[in-house]
């Protein structure tokens, strides 16, 4: 099933204070390992390579083991289950055995790779067997498939470093180097290069997935995007359908669509060499409603005008991050390949457009150029919280155009109320560009004409503060989407949400009064096709969670 969710939204280079930026380029879910088989061949079953099988000897950790408590929690310390056992696995064969054992004993199984799921989807009390895929972290070139193989436990930082050092290539994934590929890729995956190169899954060639048949037997299956692959629907389901729905992903293969030849350096996008980063900070001390809504409106208008596929500005990635007033600052970030034609001029024009008509004096204005690899792999980039503050709640929505005036008023109202904390706030994240060059049905990512992602977040440290923080962010979200039942119902402005920013509230009628299901908010018209894939590949509904794809109803 690959990790259920993997998100990583945070300002590039972590230019804000240590805990102040959670999200800005993420995504969630990939897997690798080399599978035997010639290029262009597939079958119902896959045989894992000898090197994969010998990589790590499986470990079973149960309550009472000194390692047990340390392995329970992922990145969000709000959630910790109490499974009968934690299986730490290092190969596809070991995953097959672990899943078989769980099914045979009637125990619910969940999978973790990087541990960045925003909800308790892998820590649900009903989960009795937790698979830890972190030892499965190989990133390598598979000459037989002319594609790069990535295992689910590989973090985005590992993926970036290996692809860059070995071949000078990259993928348009998230800005948090600690996120595991396992969850990030399956949910679609996006990041600072997505406006230029599309979503991660636009470069996904194939997957290896451990699935469970109607007879209860587990086996590994390889599925690719080749038109005549009989398992192609399983590949498609992992191009944005989210983790934890169909099986356990044990390997991804990456090769850009249309890439030809056998030179690995030409099979994925070339990595930038240097990144130019510009950050502007304003103090809340002089931030009026007119000023804040002006920044938000201008940011949206710029993206409306510059987010078509092929636009000269697709190489520019922007984030506007207003904290709650208690946090003290509003930050604008622009990032671009420093060797892009007119890069400096583009950044200057962008900043001028966002600040036009806004009478504010920055407290800090920084522009610097850094090696691209340093910017994308710096420790802590994109992480929610630090060693003390590891509790958070994230909510999100896609935008097809700028917020309405009513929504802008709601944003200001909630960022200046008396209940928000210093680690609370929101982000507007630039999207669109080449993401929109792919048809909504070509992959499971249905939102292909959106231009921004909105993120609402709060981060805190103590369990005693859970209720207050959850109430603030939930109230903020419901206020912004008050006109559509408290959620971003697809329409002229809003377009649902992103499955890697998992939010169980969308499936709760207390918080979603729209009459539109969470599945529609996440998948839109692609949901029935995902249900058909679910019925074929997980007919016993072994893989489930609070936001899982549901089997189609009989009749």
From TrEMBL:
Top-level taxon: Bacteria
Keywords: FAD, Flavoprotein, Oxidoreductase
InterPro entries: BBE, FAD-bd_PCMH, FAD-bd_PCMH-like_sf, FAD-bd_PCMH_sub2, FAD-linked_Oxidoreductase, Oxid_FAD_bind_N, TAT_signal
Domain (FAD-binding PCMH-type): residue spans on this chain: 79-259
Family affiliation: Belongs to the oxygen-dependent FAD-linked oxidoreductase family.
SUPFAM superfamilies: FAD-binding/transporter-associated domain-like
Cofactor field: FAD
Organism of provenance: Nonomuraea deserti
Lineage: Bacteria, Bacillati, Actinomycetota, Actinomycetes, Streptosporangiales
Protein's name according to its UniProt entry: FAD-binding oxidoreductase
Molecular function GO terms recorded: FAD binding; oxidoreductase activity
